[in-house]
Amino acid sequence: MFACINTYALKTHARRFVSAMVLLGSSMAAWAAYPDRPLTLIVPFAAGGPTDVMARVVAESLTKVLGQPVIVENTPGAGGTVGGTRASRAPGDGYTMLIGNGGTLAVNATLYKNLSYDVLKDFIAIASIGDAPQVISARKDFPATGLDEFAAYLKQNAARLNFGAAGVGSGTWLGGQLINVALGVKVNGVNYRGAGQAVNDVMAGHIDYMVESTTTAVRYVKSGMVKAVVVLRPKRIAALPDVPSAGESGYPDLLYDIWNMILVPKGTPSEVVTKLSQSLQLALQAPELRARFVAAGVEDPTPAQKTLEGARDLLISEVARWRPLIIELGATPE
Questions:
Q1: What is the pTM of this model?
Q2: What is the C-alpha separation between 76 and 167, in angstroms, rounded?
Q3: CB 3.0 to 4.6 Å from 256: which of 132, 134, 164, 188, for a disulfide?
Q4: Which helix (H) or strand (E) holds 39?
Q5: Does the 38-131+259-329 domain belong in CATH 3.40.190.150?
Q6: DSSP reduced 3-state for 199
Q7: pLDDT tens digits along 212-247
């Protein structure tokens, strides 16, 4: 004998299935039209700094690829965590992105004990967009040139020197701390709401130096507004060919680059994530963007790091890489 069929249950399941298919169809149609309005790219620093400059170059190129404006929103404060918090609380709809770097993403994950977000759980890494070599930019009358002279000068004068940074946990702050550790000195760090403000005080001679990305350093050095002491790379870079490298000094391992990455909040649909990933890769290949990056000394990430998987792997590995140093420094947010 056949089992009794519950026709009511079948009709109920059928209605639910049809409703689900309608919703799925509507959702697919909606994401197929993505983006149909402007997007926001959150920069967790004040305008004028290296992260802001890079964000605006990428936003301009991405605007052309997506066919919708990508608006840069500066949300500075607390070493980049104010902007990170703002981005983490945004809807996961693909219309809000965050730009971050080794400081704001990897370092802050350990530095800030009570962050309202977990960078590895609350964000999706879209792509690494550019690696910026770091330069020690000093006031124009700074007496040292090259890393050996710089080290000797710091060891004799550390107590009366200051370096500038875009807040505890920022890439500029980390650079200053790396120099302190590597040279065995303790130069005081002065924190600002963004690297642009710190650069202004270096130019004015109010502070002595800062570790700055080539993204902004190149134009200030070439204009004579700051003095480039050394590039923290094994070899000199094409954008600043007259500036000595760390590799030429007695401290060849004092090397430091800043990677930069675009992320979106968790919950962003996979279709949108994929489209953003593909669109970013196209934007990063644009001749206009490449020319501006080359002029600023910004290096192209590896092909893998520009993919979703590679960007996530980079983020995970960098969080793990910096954790021991931050703990060793005993650093705390100010």
A1: 0.80
A2: 10
A3: 134
A4: strand 39-43
A5: yes
A6: helix
A7: 999 889 999 999 999 999 999 999 999 999 999 999
